Amino acid sequence: MTLSIISSDWRFKERFKQHFSPACLRSYSAAERALADIEAQTPDVLVIDTRLKEGAHTLLLQQLQRMGTCSTILYCIEEEGDRSFVPKTSLCLFTVLRCQMYASKIFEFLDPSVAENSAYETCGLIGESEAMVEVRRQLSSWGRHECPIHLYGETGTGKELAAQFLHRLKAPYRNIVSVNCSLLSDALGKSMFFGHTKGAFTDGTIELNGLIREADGSTLFLDEVENLSLHFQAHLLRLLESGQYRRFGDTKLYTSNFRLITASNERLDQLVESSAIRKDFLYRICDVVITLPPLRDHTEDIPSLVEAHLASLGVHKSLDARSLALLTEYEWPGNVRELFSVIRRAVITGDEGNYIQVTEDDIIGPLKYSYSS
């Protein structure tokens, strides 16, 4: 989806910057510049603020009428009685009170097909095996709800890709905020996460909003959640319960409304038994667990994975039959991540032939030879 905002009020435009990624949001202070861009690339949604210079919004509508734009236009008026002054037009135009024109309002007028096409990208979760089809079915089923979701799987199975899949289903026009929990163990990590005020500590020379503020209206993905200390879990409890938190050095309460996704390569029930995860923390991060299968359980997807990875590398070759057979017979303890490493190594060491050949040496990898006598 692409969204264009035309307003001379920077505060009005700021309402949308927090909720849409730069890739899909364009904002303008003057109608002339906006018209040139709209003519070159028509946005899906166009928000016109009537607080432009006198008469500019009316002239803008007339120009859009001449251009025959097919954008959904949200025309922001000051008061309910101003609807009678809206120019007559055949454009797809809706009047909205300016005080009610926030990011969430846009989705009430969005063509469902636009959202559908953006949301159902596989995000790299490739494969037509029964295991992968079931994973995508579970992700699609749970992804549109607000409940916290936990992704479990061995390293290299694609948990971050699954988080991206879930994010696209719920908030396809925002950036996902991904955090590796190993980085939150010290004071600097906590400060980056919650934010801090200027002077909150010795080196705090500037204000920092923090990752929690950035996740407002979007998705917060906590990867390797098993590495969160019990102390930091306690810090998160209030945030996950009410959405409220305080920046370091600040007494003011802030609110962040986000959807939580966590991931681990260890089972949560075992982490609770070993006292690595608090029970009250567990109940706040996990309404459902979705398991990402190891590659050895869906080796029939290896040809599709190899083809997709070669395409991403810009390599216009394929593997020979013997190489594919070799790949499907291997156990893949490092899963898809290890598979892609093997493919990259085979591409680099291969010759100029029509096919890429993978050998047992490619699969064993460089470490064995590096440390052998």
The rounded distance between the terminal residues' Cα atoms is 57 Å
Protein structure class: alpha/beta
| Count of separate DSSP helical elements | 17
Helix content: 40-55%
- The averaged pLDDT comes out at 85
Number of domains: 3
Outline the low-pLDDT stretches.
113-121
**Tally of strands:** 14
CATH homologous superfamily label of the largest domain: P-loop containing nucleotide triphosphate hydrolases
Order of strands, main sheet, comes to: 2-1-3-4-5
Strand content: 5-15%
Rg from Cα: 25 Å
Top CATH class of the largest domain: Alpha Beta
CATH-scheme architecture of the largest domain: 3-Layer(aba) Sandwich
Q: Biggest β-sheet, characterized? A: 5 strands, parallel
Q: Which of globular, elongated, flat, extended, rod-shaped describes the shape?
A: globular
Provide the CATH topology of the largest domain: Rossmann fold
List the helices and strands and how they pair.
Blueprint: E1 3-6, H1 10-17, E2 25-28, H2 31-40, E3 45-49, H3 56-67, E4 72-77, E5 93-97, H4 103-106, H5 112-119, H6 130-143, E6 149-152, H7 159-170, E7 177-180, H8 187-194, H9 211-214, E8 219-223, H10 230-242, E9 244-245, E10 254-255, E11 259-264, H11 268-273, H12 279-285, E12 288-291, H13 302-312, E13 318-319, H14 321-329, H15 335-349, E14 355-356, H16 360-364, H17 366-371
Parallel strand pairs: 1-2, 1-3, 3-4, 4-5, 6-11, 6-12, 7-8, 8-11, 13-14
Antiparallel strand pairs: 9-10
Helix pairs in contact: 2-3, 6-7, 10-12, 13-15
